[in-house]
Design goal:
Strand content of chain A: 5-15%
Largest sheet of chain B: none
CATH class of the largest domain in chain A: Mainly Alpha
Shape of chain A: globular
Radius of gyration of chain A: 28 Å
CATH superfamily of the largest domain in chain A: Tetratricopeptide repeat domain
Strand content of chain B: under 5%
CATH topology of the largest domain in chain A: Serine Threonine Protein Phosphatase 5, Tetratricopeptide repeat
Largest interface: A-B, 40 and 35 residues
Largest sheet of chain A: 5 strands, mixed
Structural class of chain B: mainly alpha
Order of helices and strands of chain B: HHHHHHHHHH
Order of helices and strands of chain A: EEEHEHHHEHHEHEEHHHHHHHHHHHHHH
Shape of chain B: globular
CATH architecture of the largest domain in chain A: Alpha Horseshoe
Number of strands of chain B: 0
Number of helices of chain A: 21
Oligomer: heterodimer
Helix content of chain A: 55-70%
Radius of gyration of chain B: 20 Å
Strand order of the largest sheet of chain A: 5-6-3-7-8
Structural class of chain A: alpha/beta
Chain lengths: ~475, ~270
């Protein structure tokens, strides 16, 4: 029995305090595996930390005669400069394993974690997944009554997941799990009952499915109810979408091209070189060409721009984007690698990298990058959608669904996400839900009819050119 | 050896405490010496250098004993006492910071790390003393042990006094970053006023009252008196002063730690 009485927990934030739980009381029965679901920031991890006794409530108490593991999360709880083996030895000592038993245990831990020779390397060189796996393998050396699992199953590959499940099952006689996961399919594998955590409220459900229904229901209920339109009709309607190409070249365009030519001549004028920020200039020029559809010239100016100022991220991103749409893998890789050295955590850089990985079928790596993207930019729904695509490619429909739902929570009217949602539901055989998703897309299309494909914004380009022209002429005069 | 209790909730508080302190002790030991080529040999080096330099300087200006005992023995006892007094608070400041990863485990508390470090530092000093004094006997620096029981009592009191300072530093270290800069500034002058290279009897009586507020001076003087036959103890030195300083310091350390024990682990943690 776990008794929680009048629990209040808040954190100091920049302006005042953020209250996670306010006066929560509930009790959890013995012998159940408990899943915790809820949106990001609802306090799931905090709850596990409180249970694990490594964080303290502001007031109230948690009572239980059971032992809890430390929260098994992505961050392993290791000392960074020590190797995996040294860390594990220290923690075996902490938990009173006699020294003569430790050597054998360390072998088992290495085996179970599946990190191989990294076991002998300092923990600081581990990827986030490896730390989590090692922490999990280590915890299996002890008989806790409850294992507190915080998202580690989401990073492991299928192989590790299977091993983890076996390890937990071998302990099923004396141990239970309390786990947090975005992956409904993982929760389904392990848990009997669930806590739904939302807006500071904790609701206990006797079955996981009830909780999941309740949680997903809030997303689905925002969609219009299914009408008499059949699923096939909706899909057909969506399939008809085509991309129309920009319309033909018009007169202002010709003027702009002429202006560009003039600019080029002035720039190559070695007698009176214009005084300008070359890097910015080439970037602007490249953008003008890109808008006009002249990717060749655009590429040349973008690469000039980044040659002049190698620390300028924008032209590299542009180069990568152009290369991606041209299908030029080599240039894309070059530009992307350069951008990554500059700003490895930049959202656009990560986006391009994930797109590339997904395009080349490296879904597992893409998933790692999504995780990084989400830790750095938790509000970017695109990363959730990428995650969904990666999970789908890895044949994990449950996780893909959960990720899509998370993306839709952040961007409820995104048709692309809704389409993925519908497709995932349809694949899972849940046609009613799929239909609802497609229905919502139809409704959205009806409310905001698709805009005609944008013409190259000639005014913008003309403005850029004029500005550049005036700048160069001023410095020449 | 008793069987390992794999059922974590059946381990007794004493078992837990012992395993934790042992585990951290081993980690601290590796951390302190594991990275250096000559490992444990570095520990006696610093006191040896101090003692040699002090003895050489003294040898140039004067001969004969200091306060009734051989100068080298005098310096050795003073230097070891000073190093212990200096090490504990300074190493305690970083107890929490350098073991941040370990607070992921419920049973590890900052006090455990302090206790492990305290034991380690004490053992290092003890190890150096056990190495150094027979060596001095061997090279003809004679001394005779005076009163082992009293020596034990004085050292125990000094240990408690320093432990109080250490606990205070354990609690303040993570909350007050500047402590790392300030503390060495406070401790360094103690080298010159704690009777490390002079006995209190050699100080003019009029000046002694300025020095006797310093408990470290009392501790070193009392230690020498209890350890070595023939030491000239100044009448101003008082065991009860050291004793009350120890009581106050320890009580203060415990209270500060108790008040801040949750804050020091959770400070800086987000979610």
């Amino acid at each position: 029995m776990i008794e929680i009485r009048n629990l209040t927990k808040s954190y100091r934030v920049q302006n005042g305090r953020h209250c996670v739980f306010k006066d929560i009381s509930l009790s959890l029965p013995d012998g159940a595996n408990i899943g915790i679901i809820g949106p990001n920031g609802a306090g799931k991890s905090t709850f596990l930390r409180l249970l694990g006794g490594i964080d303290h409530p502001d007031s109230g108490e948690i009572r239980s005669s059971k032992s809890f593991s430390w929260p098994l999360g992505l961050k392993g709880g290791f000392i960074n400069h020590m190797t995996g083996r040294q860390n594990c030895r220290v923690i075996c000592n902490l938990y009173g394993l006699p020294p003569r038993a430790i050597k054998g245990k360390l072998g088992e831990i290495k085996e179970l974690s599946g990190i191989g020779d990294y076991f002998e390397e300092p923990v600081k060189y581990y990827s986030s997944g490896m730390g989590g796996r090692l922490g999990f393998a280590l915890s299996m050396a002890f008989d806790f009554d409850y294992f507190l699992i915080d998202e580690i199953t989401s990073v492991g590959d299928a192989h590790f997941k299977r091993i983890a499940k076996e390890a937990l099952e071998s302990k099923a006689r004396q141990s239970r799990v309390i786990m947090v996961s975005h992956s409904v399919s993982d929760l389904r594998k392990f848990c009997d009952m669930a806590i739904l955590m939302r807006d500071g409220e904790l609701t206990v459900f006797d079955s996981l499915d009830q909780a999941v229904d309740e949680y997903l229901g809030t997303v689905v209920s925002e969609m219009p109810s299914a009408s008499e339109v059949s699923l096939d009709d909706s899909i057909q309607e969506l399939g008809l979408e085509t991309i129309t190409l920009p319309t033909s070249v018009s007169t202002p365009l010709a003027q702009i091209t002429e202006g560009l030519e003039t600019l080029r001549h002035r720039l190559t004028d070695t007698v009176n070189p214009p005084e300008i920020d070359e890097s910015e200039f080439h970037h602007a020029l490249g953008q003008a060409y890109a808008t006009l559809g002249d990717t060749k010239s655009a590429r040349r100016h973008f690469s000039l721009s980044s040659q002049v100022d190698p620390h300028f991220l924008k032209p590299l991103l542009k180069l990568a984007k152009i290369a991606a749409s041209d299908g030029d893998a080599k240039s894309l890789e070059q530009a992307l690698t350069a951008a990554e050295t500059l700003h490895p955590e930049n959202a656009d850089v990560l986006t391009l990298r994930i797109e590339r990985l997904l395009a080349t079928g490296q879904a597992a790596d893409a998933l790692e990058y999504c995780q990084r993207g989400l830790t750095q930019h938790p509000k970017r729904h695109a990363f959730w959608h990428f995650r969904a695509r990666a999970c789908q490619a890895l044949n994990q429909p449950g996780e893909a669904l959960a990720a899509t739902i998370e993306a839709l929570r952040l961007a409820p009217n995104n048709q692309k996400y809704l389409r993925t949602l519908g497709m995932l539901y349809a694949e899972a055989g849940e046609f009613a839900s799929a239909q609802m998703a497609y229905e919502k897309i139809r409704l959205l299309k009806h409310q905001n009819p698709p805009k005609p494909p944008p013409e190259p914004s000639l005014e913008g380009v003309a403005k850029t050119i004029n500005k550049l022209l005036s700048e160069t002429s001023r410095s020449n005069a | 050896m008793e069987a390992f209790e794999t059922k974590i909730h059946r381990q007794s508080a004493w078992q837990i405490q012992r395993s934790v302190v042992f585990g951290i002790f081993i980690r601290e030991l590796e951390n302190r010496f594991g990275r250096y080529a000559l490992g444990y040999l570095w520990a006696p080096l610093e006191p040896l250098v101090y003692v040699i330099v002090l003895s050489l300087v003294r040898g140039r200006f004067a001969a004969g004993d200091i306060g009734g005992i051989s100068p080298v023995v005098f310096f050795a006892s003073g230097v070891l006492g000073y190093i212990f007094f200096r090490q504990i608070p300074i190493t305690s400041l970083s107890c929490v910071e350098s073991n941040q990863g370990l607070f992921n485990y419920q049973r590890v508390k900052p006090a455990d790390i302090f206790v492990a470090r305290f034991i380690l530092e004490s053992l290092i000093i003890l190890f150096v003393a056990v190495l150094l004094f027979p060596l001095l006997l061997g090279v003809g620096q004679d001394f005779t042990i005076n009163d082992p029981l009293r020596l034990f009592a004085v050292l125990a009191t000094f240990l408690v006094f320093v432990a109080g300072l250490g606990l205070t530093c354990t609690a303040l270290g993570p909350l007050w970053i500047e402590a790392k800069k300030v503390l060495p500034l406070l401790i360094r002058p103690m080298f010159f006023i704690s009777g490390i290279f002079f006995p209190l009897v050699s100080v003019p009586v009029a000046l002694r009252s300025y020095l006797t507020w310093n408990p470290v001076l009392h501790a070193l003087e009392l230690t020498r008196d209890a350890a070595f036959v023939g030491y000239n103890l100044a009448p101003e030195v008082s065991f009860s002063f050291l004793f009350w300083c120890a009581v106050i310091s320890f009580a203060f350390g415990l209270s500060v730690y108790r008040l801040l024990r949750i804050k020091i682990v959770t400070s800086g943690t987000i979610r």
